[in-house]
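The following record pairs a protein chain with its ligand, S-adenosylmethionine.
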Amino acid sequence: MDSHSTALDLGAMVRAMREAYHRGDNAMEAARALLNDDANLPFAVLVAYDLQAGTYAASAGAHPERTEAWCTQLAALLRPYVETSPSSLLEVGVGEATTLAGVVERLGVPLRWAGGFDVSWSRIDAARGWLAERQVDAATFVGDLFAIPMADGAVDIVYSSHSLEPNGGRELEAVRECLRVARRAVVLVEPLYEFASPEAQARMSSHGYVRGLREAAESLGARVVDHRLLPYTGNPLNPSGVLLLEKTDDSPAANDLVWRCPLTHAPLTPEEDLYVAADTGIAYPVLRGIPLLRAEHAVVASRLARHAGR
Ligand SMILES: C[S@@+](CC[C@H](N)C(=O)[O-])C[C@H]1O[C@@H](n2cnc3c(N)ncnc32)[C@H](O)[C@@H]1O
């Protein structure tokens, strides 16, 4: 496909997905049908989740007992890694921060930094509302879990809550990137295909969900310390489990987060309305207060340094 037809196809895909969503159908399924492919195109994952923005917060508000059970379970998995000293915690694919807020509230220990990012701007917008209502202090930004805009070992713990899920076929890349950014541990809470019933496996395959996360981690040399189904799961046809990977980095925790350009890994300096990599002349914009730190948002702006105040 040349770039022109790609742009047209993506346009057609957004329209088809929006129509499907507003009809009450599965938007990702509409994209797969359009492409005649079982895997979920990253752009389709973005559109599908962006269309749903607001629904997780509404659901968490309507069913606080589910959020309570989910976040209590996750906090118990994370606590051993954060209770010894004030630590930093990052949720990849944070959605509307209904999990992040609940985890921070339930950990019961002071954190040095908590944050989360999502591929969808609309979900981060919803996340900011949810965090503000609960007065939970956590940073949020738009980012891609396959190119996290942070330095190696930038945070103590990286965790997920069903965000690797729709990225079937890209397990190795996803686990590698989480391991790169974590200093102490990676805690992946994802549907575990290997432990699922045949019915659940069929459903997971048809949705293009991840599988074989443990094999991916082991092939990268990661140390697996826990891998099992969890007692509380939202949907038995999508059974949640944990894959816990420990790292052996004894270096002292960084005092400050170090942002990195997702394209070049050059240091990024946050400014009022942009993040700038001075040595490459690449900048990332901030939309309505939300940093856009995906490679797709890169603006090559070599003349930026000439502007006042820089
Ligand atoms: C099932 S939702 C879970 C949201 C949140 N973790 C929670 O517990 O409520 C999956 C989330 O992962 C995000 N996601 C999927 N692929 C992503 C990627 N490549 N980079 C960043 N976020 C991603 C989606 O946009 C969506 O918000």
